[in-house]
Amino acid sequence: MTTMTKTEDTPAPTGPEAFLSVRDLRVRFSTEDGIVNAVDGLSFDVERGKTLGIVGESGSGKSVTNLTVLGLHNPKTSAVDGSIRLDGQELTDAPEKELEKLRGNKVAMIFQDPLTALSPYYTVGRQIAEPFMKHTGASKKQAKARAIEMLDKVGIPQPALRFNDYPHQFSGGMRQRAMIAMALICNPDLLIADEPTTALDVTVQAQILDLLKDLQQEFGSAIIFITHDLGVIANMADDLLVMYAGRAVERGSVREVLTAPQHPYTWGLLSSMPRLGGDIDEALTPIPGSPPSLLNPPSGCPFHPRCTFTDKVEDSRCSGERPQLAEGRAAACHLTSQQKQTIFIDQIKPRLG
Question: Which of 10, 56, 172, 180 falls between 20 and 30 A from 303, CA-CA?
Fold first, then answer.
């Protein structure tokens, strides 16, 4: 792995250094069919005590980005370039032993499917207690007491008894709560939640989201919340990053992006969602086409083959020139600011109600 120096295409952070700062991150996988550009020049910041939401379709690079932050990619089949700085420490060239000290301690992850993330051979309590012993040097007795405390904190009834249960004895919602307890047992400064409510029913999903917000207030952790559900992100995040084909296409505060989106892909995501209080028979507006192959991504703007507004851009810039994402509130699109505003007000906003 190599660390890239800042270039004109790698925007520098503005203001105080963020707790997590990612600059020009590129992740490539070698496959039998060729090189997959899973993440292609991604930059973002996460501040202490804040939540960054990352949204996009499957295959947009959301999970790969955050696994790379944790150093969980396979160095034999992948190449990573760019800069990942956690609390001022560069991670892209950090040795594995240093990364092991950070995982589960300074930074932790809640995986999408707790049934596969938890080992079926060990009790839930033992799996929660293990990182606490590893990172703090606590005894088994101390770690058990801490694990029971965390099970209670995340709402598991009779935590002292459930400590000895195996994952298959927990419901889906309880397994997810156990994963959250494991992630938070060492009070991490950064928590990465990779679609943590995907497999849960709506009631349990709401409970888990409320739990994460309450625990964030208690521990002061920064959170990266990965999802494809804009409805969930509206209630969870402070800032929002929209990804497409391994790149960031729009970013800003949640309020800015969801109330005044500037990129045609974001318009498509919002238009394809059912409206709260809308007509039950109301037709949704899907995004035409399919996401591009990352083995052979399109030239220019990666979204242009699916975009219905390319005719408003002159000189075929959409297919020939890749738009850049500026710092701060921005969208990587060749449409002018006036065109974006006019299209949104006249065509998109009426769909959203």
Answer: 10
Say how far apart CA 180 and CA 193 lie, in whole Å: 9
Q: pLDDT tens across 128-156, in order?
A: 999 999 999 999 999 999 999 999 988 89
Residues 187 and 299 in one domain: no
Chain centre distance of CA 296: 24
Domain that holds residue 342: 259-275+284-352
329 and 224 housed in the same domain: no
What's the whole-model pTM score? 0.88
Kindly state the tokens that stand for 254: 């949640």
Which residues are CB-contacts of 325 (< 8 A; sequence separation ≥ 6)? 11, 43, 247, 248, 249, 250, 251, 331, 332
Determine phi and psi for 232, rounding to 5 degrees.
Answer: -65, -45
Q: Average pLDDT of 283-299?
A: 87
Q: Which residues pair with 225 in a beta bridge?
A: 53, 193
Residue 325: inside a domain, yes or no? yes
In DSSP terms, which residues pair with 248 in a beta bridge?
243
CA dist 151 and 184 (Å) reads 10
Half-sphere exposure of 129 (CA within 13 A, CB side): 21
User: Are both 207 and 324 inside the same structural domain?
Assistant: no
